[in-house]
Amino acid sequence: MNRRKFLLSSACACLATAATKVGAVLAQDAAPIPRRACGTPLPTPAEKIQARRVVTALRANRVAFRGKTIIPVRFHIIHEGRRGYLPDRQIKAQMALLNQAYAPAQIQFKLVNVKLHENPAWFRQEPSTDEEIEMKTELGKEPEKSLNIYTAEPAGGLLGYATFPWWLRDTPQLDGVVLHHATLPDASRPWVDQPWPFDLGMTAVHEVGHWVGLYHTFQGGCQAPGDDVDDTAYEGQAAAGCPLNQRSSCPGEERFNPVDNYMDYSDDACMKQFTPIQYQRMKDMVGYYRYQLNPLTQRSSLLAQIRESIE
Amino acid sequence: MKTLPLLLAALTLSISAGPVFALKNIEGCDIVAFAPGSSALTPEQWLDYRSKVEAALMPGNAAPTAAGVVAAQKELLALIKASPAYRDYLAGDSCRILAGLDAGAVQKLLAEAAATMPADAAKTLGALVETARAQIDRIERTARFRSNRDRTLFAAQYYCFVAASIVAFLPPERRAEIALEDFGDTISCKDAGRTG
Known about the structure:
The complex is a heterodimer of chains A (311) and B (196). With 311 residues, chain A is an alpha/beta fold. In chain A, strand 1, helix 3 and strand 2 form a beta-alpha-beta unit. The longest helix of chain A is centred in the N-terminal third of the chain and has 15 residues. The N terminus of chain A is likely disordered. Chain B is built from 10 helices and 3 strands, in the order αααααβααβααβα. In chain B, helix 3 packs antiparallel against helix 4. The chains are: A alpha/beta (311), B mainly alpha (196). Chains A and B meet through helix 5, strand 4 and helix 6 of A and helix 1, helix 7, strand 2 and helix 8 of B.
């Protein structure tokens, strides 16, 4: 089954006359611009549509982000006594895992800061609560130019949560990734029940995936455009455990469920890969929305013009 | 002068972040599915519930809106929590929670509720429902849960809060006939792993 994407023809037409200059980091993409039609109504939130418009505009202008993007990482370890305390060993192991997973996109993470904060209220935070907002407002640093990672112990079965790159402009204070402390790799964790299939560090890889603009592979279920990534199969619902080699239950979808993808809900040991188009999307999203991470994208007049024309 | 940027930043945060309370209460589903049929609740107690929710929704109320609504919901449930019938309901097969919200159905029910309440409160209720939906939508799209069951339970807290908030303003006869399924897809408490 062919995945279909939305291409907003109006955006393309509008941008057809946009500048053709490219910066050093932006190169002319020789490949023809993919054009597909999709008559499916838009059931998704406005921001999904906007993200699609961005991808469309980048392709229409033949923008390709080349070169390495180095992302400074600030770790904020929230703890309650010994609970939640993380030794350097675990932070380093997590950083190594992130760098391994994102290397094909030429995204590199560089640890610049680790700070401990004892705060029981922040430790038990949940998304969209006072505690999350207070914590991030007080601790978050340079969200436009770095990745703030907070470790805590969110309730309700939450292993972690993140912000999308297109939220950065309106709510920079809330930008970043929150992780359950027990998800970091290389842990000794007497407080966690055995077995604990989420302690190999894949939650950070997954949440940073959102931070660079990826959706869950099961986003939208069987309905187009799913996760807006052509080379992941449609998936009716999130995977649990590691049910490899099962065909998707979505009608017409002949591929296997993407249970080994970092953006599914499988056990850590099951998660092995991003797809090429996921890597492409994260480069696009970082280059466009998180352009201040890279001096070259920050200086690009073409990106500035594209931004002006579609926002 | 140095404080000005800080003040502006704080203002921006308070506007863009919206209500800072999680709009969550899984017991809200019991207010829709169990409480209307409970003989333990008197019409006066239902009226009291409605008044408290309405007061929380009115402009200029003392307590933060969402916290006031959740408090009113918990006070109503507290009146029946000790009853054997409620305990049996929670443990039985008829206990269900919302696994999703039907946007169209919720809009219709909101309109029904709005017809019975002050315009200001109706406006706030509509905004609250929308915020709850937006919050859980954001969380579901950017979070990783231990399991689908955890995800379902987490989202149900938002959906049940919405349903109970709307039901507060429906007339008694309508409240009695309405089912949880009228708000959206449901799942049994047992299947969802609800323990309290």
